[in-house]
Design a protein that fits this description.
Layout (H helix, E strand, L loop, with lengths): L43 H14 L6 E3 L2 H8 L6 H11 L7 E3 H14 L3 H12 L8 E3 H8 L8 H13 L3 E2 L4 E3 H11 L15 H39 L7
Antiparallel strand pairs: 1-2, 3-5, 4-5
Helix pairs in contact: 3-4, 5-8, 5-9
Length: about 260
């Protein structure tokens, strides 16, 4: 009896044969990323400050901040990051060009790198303002009239007309409170830096100074304050000795 070659196979014609899905081979889970320790150059106080700034910009509370926040955060620390420097930091410390957030440990290494770049003029100005404004605790505030008196003595003398413009700008950006005379110089410098422009045709006194001049000013001022303290101490000792000699003459104290 003739048997068709398709006998027994007609039911499979035109239908796809079912294929078993490939078996997935489960490997070991990926190792967690090893977080490097913070740079050794930072003190616990430094790290606490850097952490505070980082947390303030971690809007989603995921221990990461978005890339556009980094320049702002650096400025809050007193730096003056340039576009090319920011690009360099991203290329050096981020895994690839598709990463759009920065982790805390990466943030610390960016700060260290920015410090090593130098030329942070605003940072130098901020420190000089703290010294000149007698803000020994570095609160970020000083008395504007006191600062005016100092700026008219230190470096290139400040003109009265320049200080009028100074007050106008500080009042407008709310870094100066006329009621109590307090001036938030840290915020003032930050706002000027963020605007990326100078508000004066001729930069006011402290922007005419380079970092070496600012450092020399701080050293000279510290030396003069030390000499003033020594002078006062010498006067005190002289008065005490004069008083002692008078008591000796009156017979109230035995002679040496």
């Amino acid at each position: 009896m003739y048997q068709s070659p398709f006998y027994g196979g007609l039911s499979t014609i035109g239908k796809e044969q079912k294929k078993e899905p490939p078996k997935l081979v489960m490997g070991p889970p990926p190792k967690p990323k090893k977080i490097p320790p913070p740079p050794a150059c930072f003190s616990p106080e430094d790290l606490a400050r850097f952490k505070e700034v980082f947390k303030a910009h971690d809007e989603d509370n995921i221990d990461k901040v978005k890339l556009p926040e980094i320049p702002i955060m650096l400025r809050k620390l007193g730096f003056n990051p340039k576009g090319a420097e920011i690009k360099f930091l991203y290329e050096k410390f981020l895994e690839d060009e598709f990463v759009d957030t920065v982790e805390y440990f990466e943030w610390l290494f960016m700060i260290e790198a920015k410090i090593n770049m130098g030329d942070d003029f605003e940072l130098a100005v901020t420190k000089a303002m703290a010294t000149i404004g007698h803000d020994d605790e570095e609160t970020g505030f000083t008395d504007l009239n006191l600062l005016k008196e100092e700026l008219m003595v230190w470096g290139e003398p400040l003109l009265e007309i320049e200080f009028v413009d100074f007050i106008k700008v500080a009042t407008k950006n709310k870094t100066f409170t006329p009621l109590d005379g307090k001036f938030n110089y840290v915020k003032f410098i930050e706002l000027m830096n963020n605007a990326d422009q100078k508000f004066f045709k001729e930069p006011i006194n402290f922007f005419k100074l380079d970092q070496k001049t600012l450092a020399a000013m701080a050293i000279q001022k510290a030396q003069e304050e030390k000499e003033e303290e020594e002078r006062k101490e010498a006067e005190r000792l002289a008065k005490e000795e004069a008083k002692r000699q008078k008591l000796i003459q009156q017979g109230l104290l035995p002679a040496d």
